[in-house]
Amino acid sequence: MSYDYVIGVDCSTTAAKAVVWNAHGEALSQDRRAFELSQPRPGWGEQNAEDWWAATVAAVKRAVQTVDTARVGALCITHQRESFVCLDDTGRSLRPAMLWLDTRATKEVEQFGTEEVHRVTGKPPNPTPAWYKLLWLAANEPDLIGRIGKVVDVQGFLAQRLTGQWVTSWASADPMGLVDMETFDYDDGLLKAVGLERGQLSELRAPGSVLGELREDVAAQLGLPAGLPVVAGAGDGQCAQLGTGITSPGRAYLNLGTGIVSGTLDEQYSYGREYRTLAAAVPGAYTLETFLGGGTFNLNWFVEKFSGVDPRALGLDLTPEQVLETAAAKLPPGAHGLLALPYWAGALTPYWDHNARGILLGLTGVHGKSHVYRALLEGIAFEQRLLTTGAEKALAQPVTDLIALGGGSRSAVWCQIIADVMQRRVSVVREPESTCLGAGMLAAAAVGIHESIPAAAAAMSGTSTSFEPEDRTAAVYDRLYRVYRDIYPANRDLFARLAEAQP
Questions:
Q1: Measured between alpha carbons, how far is 213 from 165 in angstroms, rounded to an integer?
Q2: Is 182 exposed, middle or buried, given 0-12, 13-18 or 19+ CB atoms closer than 10 A?
Q3: Residues 6+ apart with CB under 8 A from 396
Q4: Above pLDDT 70, what percent of the chain?
Q5: CATH T-level topology, domain 5-244
Q6: What is the DSSP string of 129-145?
């Protein structure tokens, strides 16, 4: 029997999800197992790495129970990026894993975040990459460094459990900030700075290559055939890009989630403060990525703290967001002169300012809940225009189309606002689990279900609805954007002064 199924596993910040895909990118079966996120202090984020394994095992085992496992050709993992765990020589955790969202290493960023580190890694200095957190560990938990046997990313941890080998892809290890982006190999200077040697890290392979085979005992545990190829995946952002079908320049994915992540593909290496550069899921290519921390997070904040909307009390089978969206859709572009700077979670690209905060500009007595909600939707769209046009400076060709995914992509009102503000077509993915689908594409190409990664992406991806920019509305947004882009520069010093003035 020929193989025509693959398994994509997404081990994210909150859960492990396993999906069985067919050759057309259709989900045949899936399961999700949640695990805990610990925040013992403000700004810290930790997890028990064993939870990654337990949740992955449970999700895969359940997902394959309703499919013919003899037709499964390979398994591939995508995961939360930058997160890592320190292990002893036996593979046991020495301390809780440190997550991408952990910001404790701010002093290390100030001290060690040089232009040269940015050039080598493609990452502007900020607390997200693991390298800065390893420097924090060296300064604050010095006894730990001498006991480290391995430092591994999430895929590296899971791949060892699955295959018995310490291997990962360069597109998985790269977000940790230890990889030279021009060679796709570890940088010896970065390793030396944190007291590590190459033997303490997973061996790097190209995304889409075979890392190893499923061990017999693990195969029995998962309900899969022993010897099943385990394929090198990539971080969740790069796999989301692949899952939306982007394998060449000119289009960008736009993940409308808790944070807003967007990325486009380029074939040449570049770096800049307007974006962070990652190894793409397509071997040898690069993902230029922008990030806004306040996406649906901002909307949920307003709904929970201020909206007072209870659709059930009105006998409506709607969410509060849908009610507010309906009201906001009746307002003109610009919400009667109200603009929102959406830095509820600070500013990353292009300003990298953790002192930055949200602003509502232009409030008058005429404004109500629907105005604020529309201003938030528009503010995020304005910010994405700023981010995309900034990243475009490094691209050989401009971004003409946006492929939207994530919870926010289900909002037709928001997608139309984005199309009008950015003056680009916005198409919504057919498959909501596009991140996990990207892992499935890598698996399908690795075992010959499709002849290449681009061929797998073309065959397994697709979009549903599309939104075209409306010229008259776009003209209004053009005028408002010229005001919006000056809000942060005009308030940069005030943000710093506010931070200093706090007790």
A1: 9
A2: exposed
A3: 249, 266, 267, 268
A4: 100
A5: Nucleotidyltransferase; domain 5 (3.30.420)
A6: SHHHHHHHHHHH-HHHH
For 64-89, what is each residue's pLDDT tens digit? 999 999 999 999 999 999 999 999 99
Q: How confident is the model over 110-141, as pLDDT tens digits?
A: 999 999 999 999 999 999 999 999 999 999 99
Q: Which of 353, 367, 364 is nearest to 487 (CA)?
A: 353
Are the C-beta atoms of residues 128 and 82 closer than 8 Å to each other?
yes
Beta strands in 67-118 (DSSP E): 72-79, 84-87, 97-98
Kindly state the helix (H) or strand (E) to which residue 471 belongs, with its residue range: helix 471-484
What is the phi/psi pair of residue 423, to 5°? 55, 45
CA 335 – CA 363 distance, rounded (Å): 10
pTM above 0.85, yes or no: yes
DSSP per-residue codes, 249-268: TTEEEEEESSSEEEEEEESS
pLDDT of 9 > 70? The answer is: yes
* Torsion, CA 397, CA 403, CA 404, CA 405, rounded to 10: -120
Q: Would you list the domain boundaries of the chain?
A: 5-244
Identity of the amino acid at 71: R
Q: What is the pairing mode between strands 150-153 and 425-429?
A: unpaired
In angstroms, the CA 211 to CA 483 distance is: 51
- Dist CA 240 CA 438 (whole Å): 6
Compute CA distances 315 → 221, 225, 312, whole Å.
Answer: 48, 51, 5
- Between 13-27, 306-320, 452-466, the lowest mean confidence (pLDDT) is in 306-320
> Count of CB atoms within 10 A of residue 352's CB?
16
User: How far from chain centre, in Å, is Cα 374?
Assistant: 25
Cis peptide before 350 (omega within 30 of 0): yes
